[in-house]
Amino acid sequence: MREQSPARKRRRLRGIAYLVAVYAAAAYIVIPELWRVAERFLLAQPGGMVTHTTAGIPGDPINIGIGGDKAQLITAFAKAGWDAADQLTLKTAVEIGLAVLFDRPYPDAPVSTLLFEGRPQDLAFEKPIGNSPDRRNHVRFWLTAQQVDGKELWLGSASLDTGAGVSHDTGQITHHIGPDIDAERNLVVQQLEAAGLVQRVFEIPGRGATQNGRNGGGDRYFTDGVAKIVVLKDI
Fold this sequence. Notes:
Elements: H1 6-41, E1 50-53, E2 58-61, E3 64-67, H2 70-79, E4 83-84, H3 90-101, E5 114-116, E6 119-120, E7 123-128, E8 136-148, E9 151-166, E10 173-177, H4 181-194, E11 198-205, E12 210-214, E13 220-223, E14 226-232
Parallel strand pairs: 3-14
Antiparallel strand pairs: 1-2, 1-5, 3-9, 4-7, 5-6, 7-8, 8-9, 9-10, 11-14, 12-13
């Protein structure tokens, strides 16, 4: 087989670099901006109990809440066998990418940033399924100004990561979620209860019942539309 000339190799490399640049610009700049415009002017605004991606796309709904202070949350999830997620940085993004690629453990891998009421999550917890962090139970929490039983109220969004891939809406690299988000919400509640950490559980209205919701990655979900609030025991 004839070896390519240096000039032809350079042209191929330039072509590949051009395609990568076009993909990155489309997935991370152009398409997210189109979503921002559509969300602002064309789409019906979602209810208040829905998160958004940093591109302004409606994300996972709020389906869980915890009554307790920050130390109680961290202690409770640790006792229930969950890990606190690392902050998302360039370093941790590379680490999770390598862990997924080589199927190796990263139990406190970062989660992507979602916004609720304009703020990124304050805390996130996860429980891996198998070695790779591409499959995991996970939940994000936002501290609110409300209280329940005299305790701080954290509203959260629980979902199951089923694998790494690209967003159906933007083409960005992301995790896909399982459609039954109620099952993931209930799992979090059940595991906190099993660890003997729960004082009481009650329900509040969430985003509303739907059989065909879509999150920020374009993944379908269905839900009964309520958020379960877990009030922790003093521990």
